[in-house]
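re: ur question from yesterday

yeah so i grabbed the chain u mentioned. its 585 aa long if i counted rite. heres the sequnce exactly as i have it in my notes:
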Amino acid sequence: MADPLTREGDGILGSDEIFSRSKVGPQDGAFQGQSSYTMPHPQQETGPDPAAMKAAAMAQNPPKSFCKKSKLGTTPAWIAALIVAPGQLIYAMEAVCFAVNLPIISDRLGVDTSVVQWVIHSELLICCGFGCLAPKLAEKFGISYVYIASSYTFGLFTFLITFFPGSLPMVIICRLLASFGLALLLPLGNPMAYMMTSKAKLPIVLTVNSAATPIGTIFSSLVSGAIAQSSEWSYMMTIIGLFSMLHATYSIFLCLRIRGNKAAKIDWIGALLIIVAVTLIIFGFTSISEAMPWYAGTLSLLFGAGVFVIFFFWNTRWSKCPLYVKSAFNPSVAKNLVAMLMASCMYFGERFFFPYIIVRYYKYNSIQNGLFSAIGGVLSIAFSPLFTFANKKIVARVIIIIFGLTYLVAMSIEAIFLHVHEALVVIMGTICIVSFIALLISIQTASMANTPAKYAPTIGSLNSIMNNLGHSIGIALAVTVQSGVTRSLSSVGDANAPEVLQSSIKAGILSCTFFGAVLVINAFFMGVLKSDRGKCGFSERILARTKHFPENINNSGEMVEIQGDTYEAAQEQQAITSLYQPKFL
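ran it thru and got these structure tokens back, copy pasting raw so excuse formatting
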């Protein structure tokens, strides 16, 4: 059985890792003054590492759980999935509920649909802005405690919407507070899976987590519309809120009680800067998609970019406890984040037009629209195990290229042949959904599986921010292009003519091919690791130019001399070494 921290016996520790120990002395099990390296990598950090010391402490006193099967690094995949997947599930359910029932909600609140759209956008602003706090809060208070508290927060305030279905101020307040819980819940899901499961079972949990999104979409598409039409739209919020609180309650018994570091400091100035920057940027893109005055979006984007530049210099030069340490970034991480951003932009931009095509162009009702969307969700769930298996046999960059091109072709056919038949649009749209799930699984697995433990919360937070940012950018560009085409065509004819709607939707969808092209080009420059040997697409030439975390390049952990031959001393040594070992597929 593999050691839960070191992965010894699980194929993780490299054969070239040497434990240098001397005879037992009066200071058995104590570290000597400095770490000694053999052929240090140029990117390797030097000096004492608090995360390494924490790992050594975990080796002597591993976190416990009320569930006997929950153990650090050896938790069964189904338990980890029960903890992690509901976050994506409830997120999809709530988002789809508002999107499907938009006309009903606007009538019940007595406001225009554009106002209700901003109730939806408020969640995006909060999730993207406050998501940056998740890694630091997890470090200070413990990742499991923050995760459970955020699920309770989201569930409670979502449930409270039940009692105010006709009050716009109360719906906005509850929505904002619930979104704050969601902003912390989503980025910590994959890091929780990383810490609880073994390297072999991590892709399974990540696949289930990715498949939870289409499952939530299917369920909410079919149920929320029926509930809203037959009784009250807010009753769906009751279901979602109770489910979230149920998830938080059983997670108390299944999660590991991983304590935080009370001495850890949070850079509140940096947090404020990044929250303001991200909020202004997303507000700018969203205002463009909502047809607000051009100067509103332009000023928001300019101010947001300016604040982000200030945050960059603050985080890298002036802050004593930066939100994002420089050592967490390298070219490979940057390319993974670009891939996540481009995939999200492409998907959300293209999906934005699907209800317009089905309901407005082909004149189907909202329930039929939900059924058409459910087809893609069902097939995504069916193909998810195949995508997980593919990640074990094919390098991530090749999978991203294949499904990126597949998405591009399907999206182009959907747009160009929009007028032919609705069946062709549904089939191509389904291929797009399935391709996006394949991209999501590949990008997230490559990102999390190859990340050292100390950077897992940071990478999880950045992935969540890229996903939400892509949502805003993709829709903004697509709607801007569509609106421009509509204005130009309506100047010479009827703006409500089917030909105008058809041409504007085509232009909007085709504009998203830009993101797909960037995604594929970026994938050609992504690297491989030594663990990818034997997979389709591996190349020693690509490996030689890959710049990743140093422990993933040389496969030799930090070597620390230890005095003593005691069991505790060996555990401390192995814990520090394992901290620098990635969890490969």
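noticed a couple things. Strands lie at 21-22, 562-563. also The first helix runs from residue 50 to 60.
anyway ttyl
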